[in-house]
Amino acid sequence: METSNRFLSRSEIIGFAVLAAVIFIVLPVALDTFRLNLFGKYLTYAFVAVGLVLCWGAGGILSLGQGVFFGLGGYCMAMFLKLEASTPENTAIQSTPGIPDFMDWNQLTALPAWWQPFNSLAFALLAVVAVPVIFAFIIGVAMFTRRVGGVYFAIITQAFAAILTILIIGQQGYTGGVNGITDLRTLLGWDIRTDEAKEILYYVNGVLLFAVLFAAQYVRKSKLGRLLIAMRDQEDRVRFSGYNVANFKIFVFCLGAAFAGIGGAMFTLQVGFMSPTLVGIVPSIEMVIFCAVGGRLSILGAVYGALVVNWAKTTFSESFPELWLLGLGGLFIAVVMAFPNGLAGVYAEHVAPRIAKLFNKSAGDDMPGAAKTPAE
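Above: the chain's sequence. Below: its structure in token form.
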């Protein structure tokens, strides 16, 4: 008999194995390089969705600003890649060679001091996680220590997403403005634009996603995970029991930001650019939709939600370019109304019982010495 505090139950082991087969075997075999790269982009959103399962599903913290952390991680990686592509040889036609092209267009004559550390890949990789976490820590301390939560917290995080978007667009000479940071070519001399590189990055993306999934599973199965659920359901009771609720909320909010930052960095590598359109209110709300459709209580469901919603978004936009937003909204409304626990809820309520019944029946038929009636 399996206990609930095991790191992975039998059904969860099967779930992880199926997801691994889908990501590492089925999709690479079934799709060409272009479509595989699209699904690699979809997987980068799954990092955000997994973080939202911990924040929203387990902790009851609905953040409508996860695009902020996704964008910060993506911009940190893009800054390193852009500096590597902006060598004096590659930018010889500029007025000031050796700086990114958008800085030259905006009449900057030297690389800003805060860009200098991003010449180091090690610093950039550290910043991919550290910058979103620091930003989330500041927001968390400001909000949770004052017991701001629920709808108010969601609106405030949405406001931060809008503010950061405006800031990035307004500081065009330092951030690339509305176009973002584009024309990213190499990673330590390795051309990331080739089909072979995109396939390799897809597999790296999948491996990192599973690392994030295992980290999220560890949190869910730990004492912290149980406290998060208790805080979601009865926050005052947890507080009266002597726990500092604000600290737990800050931690899980920062953890979700770290996951989103990693996803943003992988998006930059997979797609080859980063822009403010991925930071604002609309993408942040879409990320919540990924989590809701997949199931906000399931980390595996969140991954499937990101894949399904983005696949539907691509399909609708290709077939009905003027109606795809209505199709995406209709999909979200239909899932939430018919299946409030998302795809994971559909599986748990309708598919898993049938599979268990089938296995139990097979096991009963195979038992040696099983009593049979004369008719049998």
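Residues 34-278 form one domain.
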